[in-house]
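Re-run with default settings, no changes from the original entry. Doing this only to confirm the output is reproducible before filing.
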Amino acid sequence: MNDIVNAPTDFQQAYVFDMDGTIYLGDHLLPGAKRMIEELRQRGIPVRFLSNNPTKDPQQYVEKLERLGLPTDISDISNTVVTTTNWIKENHPDAKVFAIAEEPLKNSLRQAGIQLSEDPEEIDIVVSSYDRGFDYRKLQIAFDAIWFHKRAFLVQTNPDRFCPFPGGRGEPDCAAMTAAIEACTGTTCQVNFGKPSPVMLTAALAGLDVEVAHCVMVGDRLATDIQMALDTGMGSACVLTGEATADDIRSLDDAHRPTWVLDRIDKLIPASAWTELGWTEND
């Protein structure tokens, strides 16, 4: 692993973090995450959190981070509940939406004044999402709205194939629902609201006076976290604590490699600061 691990030598203007597999796994913070976030905040460096998971709203992430010992303002969190709702509100405020989704996203859409419908004759947008209640009835509604009535188009909250769990397990994620709809309708998803879409980066850096080139995206997934950074000219750090493995990194060409590869999240703090702070890996 040492042949690919490399850490930054300087602090950046802002840090954008994935959460699952990067800051925590399940209900446990990953080693070094707490002191790393606290040190960045102590230095006055903006910290933002992103997630492609649309089954939780930002308040639920606030509560989880609080339980894990990382109190966080709700304004510092963006996920696909936020980006999906904002995009529809800004671009199609009068659309009638069929949301194949769980309650956090549906509630967010309702609160934004967006009308939800299960009537294929009036649906304008089908939103595909991570939905553990997905069934044939929902697939039929999407099919009728898109294929039969030829009036609705398809969007998705995130492109993830699966959601990882501790112990190496996982659950099918949004891409599975999207694939089913695309397969039966012959349509193609038109918009993605999750990483690697730049929509997520815009949400994360809103209100910050920083240069994208001097910010860093930190995550564990090459196809979403790291790809978003590559697509937007942002620095990237891949942590080997979630999905990506050392072999995955080795297989990449130079154009697709992250800026840094970390074996633990607190290596994001430069070695000079470790010395100054008296940190060791055994703390």
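DSSP finds ten helices and 15 strands in the chain. The mean pLDDT is 94.
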